[in-house]
Design brief:
Length: 195
């Protein structure tokens, strides 16, 4: 028996809603492949740079994604030079890829960063407690820090305001690729595009 076609098949609006549903689920769901997307940015020389991050927040209404990082990292330096970023998500079981383009804003010592820090577990805070910043050359691989709370001065919340989302669903009956673009006023243009 053929597997049932999902409700989003052949439906632009439903495909976007499914993308948003998967992003919302990925924030709390550590088993979702969308929980750990790849972030593309430009480094401080303008060269492309990719890395895995943990998706910490998604606001469908505001079209915003959030992740956390060490403000001493190369990615933080690159984003400060050029805020254009893209996030890549792929779920092999669902055969769905998302590419989300936007502009990243670094939040260091403001209310957004404070709320993100407050919402972080102690084990996550530990990442920022190392005396050497992410990317620094060290004599030996450092042991895990003992006190998570001293990491706050190194912590940054990064919020990505996105204006473009590309959906790709691989299906035996025909791959479906769609592009969603919001203009500055928030008006959406949605198109099917050739896969
Ligand atoms: C599963 C996984 C999750 C990660 N999550 C984060 C994260 O949320 N934030 C972060 O800055 N780095 C995270 N990293 C580490 C980055 O991939 C990267 O190695 C590090 O941040 C240095 O990147 P940069 O030199 O581009 O700044 C994660 C790595 C893995 C493998």
């Amino acid at each position: 028996m053929k597997p049932a076609r999902p409700a989003f098949a052949d439906d632009l609006n439903a495909s976007l809603q499914e993308a948003f549903r998967l992003l919302a689920d990925a924030v709390p769901n550590r088993r979702s492949p969308f929980h750990t997307p790849t972030l593309a940015s430009l480094d401080d020389t303008g060269a492309p740079s990719l890395r895995t991050i943990v998706l910490r927040g998604f606001d469908a209404e505001a079209r915003r994604l959030r992740f956390h990082t060490d403000r001493r990292s190369d990615k933080a330096r690159g984003i400060a030079c050029d805020p254009r970023v893209m996030m890549h998500f792929y779920d092999a079981a669902l055969h769905i890829q998302l590419r989300v383009a936007g502009r990243a804003m670094l939040h260091l010592d403001d209310a957004v960063a404070d709320a993100a820090w407050e919402g972080s577990r102690s084990s996550s805070r530990m990442c920022y407690a190392a005396p050497d910043g992410s990317g620094a050359i060290v004599q030996i691989p450092p042991a895990a820090p003992q006190h998570s709370e001293i990491g706050r001065p190194h912590f940054a919340a990064v919020v990505i305001a996105f204006h473009k989302l590309e959906w790709l669903w691989l299906a035996a009956a025909g791959h479906q690729r769609a592009r969603f673009i919001w203009d500055d006023a928030g008006n959406l243009t949605a198109d099917w595009i050739a896969p």
